[in-house]
Amino acid sequence: MLKYTDSFITGNGDFHSNGNIKAGSLMFQFQEIAAAHAEALGIGFDELIADNRIWVMSKLRFRVYRRFAASEEYRIETYPRRKKGVTFFRDYYVYDKDEKLMAAGISHWCVINFESRRIEKTDIDFDGEYTDRVPFEDGIRKIRAGELLPAGEHTVIESDLDKNRHTNNCRYADMVEQVTDIGEYDEFTINFSREALLGDVISLYKEETAEGFIVVGKLGDGTVVFQAETRRV
Q1: Which residue of 42, 153, 164, 207 has the smallest Cβ count within 10 Å?
Q2: Alpha-carbon torsion, ordered 112, 113, 119, 122, to 10 deg
Q3: What's the distance, Cα to Cα, between the start and end of the chain in Å?
Q4: Are 198 and 158 in contact (CB under 8 A)?
């Protein structure tokens, strides 16, 4: 079975003032284990960049089922599923010491050319047995924004960047937190439409819904960078 397991210990900085875990903290754990598994399979960052390619996440959805605690150790598992076209699917499950499910997530990835930043079709695949298990039967739902109101802006600085030289996925959750009460959420979904690079100014817009918030980030020319939704379920 294609599975990779690791563990992590939460710190005080991983939590909101109300005690709920930050979306960006979970996103960090998801991307770290995804990178570790890809490396173990021989298709990690070093292998791809040698061929002028990189992995890029396009969508993520996760749900928190139980309250996390600081200074606790949690087990995290990840499983890839069969790709469709240029889209690679990867799921995540987090458990506490009593094997209770704490959180689960689903993500979409693609491979892009490092120089052109365009999606590439590749013969990359995972060699092994896939799982039929999925965190959510309805996958990653579309985010449908209504009336969005200006909510601030964020200028991309050096510390926002990852080794792909674009804004780290986790930083977008921090931007959402800038303009919403993201501490009150059970589910977080984000769709990435365009990279944000050093010096880019991302204008943030939000809409409050019955379940939470929708936040959209745009460049000055109106190009959408990301759409995110927080929900209380």
Answers
A1: 42
A2: -80
A3: 32
A4: yes
